[in-house]
UniProtKB/TrEMBL annotation:
Pfam families documented for this protein: SBP_bac_3
Protein name: ABC transporter substrate-binding protein
SMART domains linked to this entry: PBPb
Keyword Signal assigned: yes
UniProt cross-references to InterPro entries, sorted A to Z: Solute-binding_3/MltF_N
Occurrences of domain Solute-binding protein family 3/N-terminal (ranges): 69-310
PANTHER family named in the record: ARGININE-BINDING EXTRACELLULAR PROTEIN ARTP, MEMBRANE-BOUND LYTIC MUREIN TRANSGLYCOSYLASE F
Record SUPFAM superfamilies: Periplasmic binding protein-like II
Length: 322
């Protein structure tokens, strides 16, 4: 046999036979271990929880009924609304989603992402909905970038389920120098990028400049935890975030010794579940599920658990943001 002669497998079997055997082994391994892709895992979990007899199952679009779950985009760094604990995403939104799941008969599967990517994720259909302490605004409804004023997408419909304003907090003992937003001219603030707090800080910075004072130095971070760390280490003078988040940070950080809230809530507005335009049947099913959780008392129990009863709603509205 010359050096150029192809060598047959040692077993004497042809490559076709060996390949077929390998394919069979691979298939057996897959059937034993299961497909471990995120999509496959979500489908297996959905099969365990899918309940065609749930009160509102038939209100869902047929495609969602068949799939048995919704992919939910969420920024899980926003305690107590959504955050990670022992690897799981927990908080106000996940608890409400679980209560809604009982009514809908499908699983609402939370996916962690940075807040400023959620709208793009809805547009690309990576997520079916977004539930992430997202303030219902006209700009988001219409798909307009709040910074540039340019159209960036088709926009979303909101199912409103919570009311929250923007709060300002400082290091403990520093309220003598900063007591509200008017005191921030010439000082610095940390916020989470793309939030209402970020927009409000930019508006206040313009106001300072218009009034002939030094502007506000704004540092924007991917998540609220980074903004809190910046304040804790005295890198900025203040942080702004939604009321539930600010209240939780003040209560828990350093055992309540790190921060204090200053001034009153501003820009009070509803949180909404964001649903892509054109998904009216899904939107209305989610609205009905929230209404059912209010009626059966689950909603009140969840707000009480997280100590945010004052932020609850009595009526679920669509696109109620101003």
């Amino acid at each position: 046999m010359t050096a150029s002669t192809r060598r047959r497998p040692a077993s004497g079997r042809s490559r076709t036979a060996a390949g077929a055997a390998t394919a069979v082994v691979a298939a057996l391994l897959l059937s034993g271990c299961g497909d471990q892709t995120d999509a496959a895992i979500a489908k297996r979990e959905a099969a365990k929880t899918r309940n065609v007899h749930a009160p509102l199952f038939k209100k869902l679009p047929k495609a969602v009924q068949d799939k048995g779950f919704l992919q939910v985009g969420s920024d899980a760094t926003y305690k107590p609304v959504e955050f990670r604990k022992n690897g799981a995403i927990v908080g106000i939104d996940p608890d409400l989603a679980a209560a809604m799941s009982k009514q809908l008969g499908i699983k609402l599967n939370f996916n962690n992402a940075t807040f400023d990517t959620l709208m793009g994720g809805l547009k690309s259909r990576r997520y079916d909905i977004a539930m992430s302490a997202m303030t219902d605004t006209k700009e988001r409804q219409e798909g307009i970038d709040s910074t540039t004023g340019k159209k960036i997408g088709e926009g979303v419909d909101f199912v409103d389920y919570f009311n929250a304003g923007v709060s300002l907090y400082v290091q403990k003992g520093k309220s003598d120098t900063i007591s509200d937003w008017a005191d921030l001219c010439g000082k610095s603030i940390a916020v989470q990028r793309g939030t209402v707090s970020h927009d409000y800080a930019k508006d206040q910075a313009k106001k300072c400049k218009k009034d002939g004072e030094e502007t506000i130095s704004i540092e924007a971070f991917d998540n609220d935890s980074e903004a809190q760390t910046r304040l804790r280490t005295a890198g900025v003078d203040a942080v702004s975030s939604d009321y539930p988040v600010a209240a939780y940070a003040v209560k828990t950080s350093g055992g309540g010794k790190d921060f204090e809230v200053v001034g009153d809530q501003v820009e009070a507005a509803p949180y909404g579940i964001a649903v892509p335009k054109g998904q009216e049947q899904l939107r209305d099913a989610l609205k009905a599920a929230l209404e059912a959780t209010i009626k059966n008392g689950d909603y009140a129990k969840i707000l009480k658990k997280w100590q945010v009863k004052d932020a609850g709603v009595k009526e679920v509205k669509l696109n109620g943001g101003a």
